[in-house]
Structure formats: structure tokens, C-alpha cells
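Sharing a chain and its predicted structure for anyone who wants a worked example. Both blocks are below, sequence first, C-alpha cells second.
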Amino acid sequence: MNKEYYLEGETFVIENYDKQKPFASFLPGIAGTDGIPMWVFYTNRGQGIAGFGIENKDGAILDFVPANRAYQRTETAGFRTFVKKDGLVTELFSTLNDQPKRLMRIDANGLGFVEENTSLNLRAEVSYFTITGENFPGLVRKVTLSSLDGQPVQLEVLDGLNTLWPYGTNNESIKNMSNLATAWFDVFNAEENLPFYRNRSTSEDSAEVGVVEAGHFYGSFVGEQDQPLPVIYDPDVIFGANTACTKADVFEKESLKDLLEVKQISANKVPCAFTAFEGTIEDQMTMYTVIGKMNHIDTLNETAKVFKADFFADQEEKAKDLVDSLTMDVDGKTAYPMFDAYVKQSYLDNFLRGGYPLVFEGKEGPIVYHVYSRIHGDMEREYNYFVVEPAYYSQGIGNFRDVNQNRRNDVYFVRNPVTFLSASLWNLSSMMVRTH
């Protein structure tokens, strides 16, 4: 195999990922039967995440784009990290600096990136996973900064999302009326360092104006600290007149402390979400950021009481364990570990289209219910209207052929005679459709 592509355990590693041929992929979008899933698309550019949100394209936190656009914009529109050391600002994972060694690490239910920057004496590790088994959807971003030689490093850091669309903004508005849409945008709850992004009211062309209470949220936490870190949500505070956001112009001139004292404008502009951190890294510092959706500000502030390092570390394990438990049906050990991993990944891909069968006892006998199914929407099939149902026991819309093709898993790997009967009936129905 090419030495720049290799398997490390069950993690697929790509060296110098941002110099390789671009590709588009996605996290599986599952949160367990007792969790609320979200969709997340990624590519091997910038810090990976090309778009994510709730349910469908109309629930975007970072809007969905086709693959070719994702390759162009992910580095600047997605997650970014600016580090100031000795008065100089460097953007990590940027193509403007191609000297650092970089890796991309892909797991079945997560991904990560590594940069070793010798000029900063810094190693940066970024990983992503989704919230599992909770009553809200969320994407967790874990950032670990460590000194390469073990010596203390004094840093000012801005780390976060360059674009965060407020709740209530649909895909049509984002793509075709984003300037007008900003008239409804606002950021609330900033005093708690848990900004809540939503429209001030409904925006339909109607005589009736409705209240919007749900919102997208953002918060960052270090260790067991009770308080979240400060957040800059006004992009002008960081970039100033540089509306292309190619460099953090204001941050290059002003200290982080000074930036945090600037009055931020919360309304009538497309907001960002950057966490501010300043301190000395003795060995390493790990910061967790969670971005998702809550139905009310009060719910957010109450739920955030559990947002500590232990909670997020547990969530990281849950995300891994969930996929491991589902693919255990085809777990095998051959002389070729890459083949074993391929089989599990193929099985996962199949039941994400056809669904994973659960059997319940009904009044008139067993009932088969398929969770996790959805139409195959991704950045290379941008024409598909995908739905990742934001509900417990989530399932989505799908094509009839998806059921016939992919529920063969039920027969081969799920050892339950009820699922076999279900699959047989689907195949019989398919035959009847073709006949008539």
C-alpha cells in the first residue's frame, strides 16, 4: 500500500491529507436508539467538517454544499484555529503554511487531524464525534495542544467555527437570500458563554409572525472548570475589514484580552463562533467544544451543567462502542486486518441505507422495526433529499430499492427468523411490483 495511506488498528490514516486527491464522506449519523442524531459531512481539506446540522438541509448549522464546493471552502468557512505566539499569529492546518507534518485519521464513527508545527513547538490534535444517547443532537470537537519538546508554551488561541447559521434559516435562505435573512439573525445567552443562535421570529412571507424558541448552541470547556470559555460570535472582532476571512487581521494587531473587551454586534450579520483561550501549556491542554440544537435557552443552561471533561470523554467512548456493537454481527479475524475492517465498514454502510432490524413483541405477534435507515444523500449525490430523523429510534425516508438491496443483511447476518420473514415479504412485494 502507498506509505501515505495505511491502517493503524481500525483507524485509516492519510499522511499529508491536504495534498492528496480530494474526497467526500460523512459520519454515520447515528446516536443510539435513545439519542438524537445529526448529519455530518467531511472532506480531506482544512479541518475536515464541510457541513453539519439537524434532520435535513434546512436544519443546517454549517450549510450543506456539494463536494466540489466543499473542497474549495472548507478550510475558510469551517473550523479554524489561530494561534498567537510571541506576537505572531499562525493558522493551524492552513495551506498558507505547508511545512508542518499533517495526518488525517478516519474511524467508523469519528475522524481526526494532527499537525506538528516545529516553528511553534506545538502539536495540535483535532477529533470529532457526535453525541450519543442524549436528548439533544450535538457535534463534539476535541482539541489537544501539546508542546513538542515538553517545554512550556505561552499561547493565545482562537479556535472555532467561521460560519454558524442561526436556527430557523432554511437552505433556500442560505443559498439565495442570505443577505435578507440576516435581518432575523440574533445571538442570545452570550453572557453565559453559551451563545444561542436563532432567528428573532419566523421569517415566512405571511401576515402572522411566530415565535422561535429553539436555537443552535456553542460552548467550549477545559478540564473540570465549571464555566465555559469566552466566545467571540461577531466575525468583525476577529477579521475586521477582511470580509474574505483569509487572515485574522484584528487578532494580529490586538491582544486576545483586548478583543474580548470589544462590544460584539449580535444581530443582522452572519455570526461565527470562536473560543478564546490564553495560557501556558505546560504539557498539554485539551478543550472540548460542543455545537448542537436545544429547544430553549433554559434547557441549554440546565443541560450544560454536565458539560465537563468526563462527560465528553464518556461520549467519545459511547460513539465508538455504538458502532462496534452494531458491526459485531460481522466481526471476524483473518490474516488481513484491512479486510476485516472493510467487512465491518461495508456492513455499516449497508444498514445505514436499509436499516438495522429491531424486533418487538406486538399484540398480534413480533414486529420488526428498522432504525438508522435513510436515503443515500451525500456531497457527491447532492440531488438527494436526505432526512436523518431527529428522534429516538431514528429512521429516515428511503427508496424502495434501498430496502430490497440492503435489507438482505437481515437474512445473512441478523439471526432472527422474524427478520428473515420480513425480508422475504419485501422481496415478494418487489416481484409483484415488477410483474404488474
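Comments welcome. Residues 422-436 have pLDDT under 50 and may be disordered.
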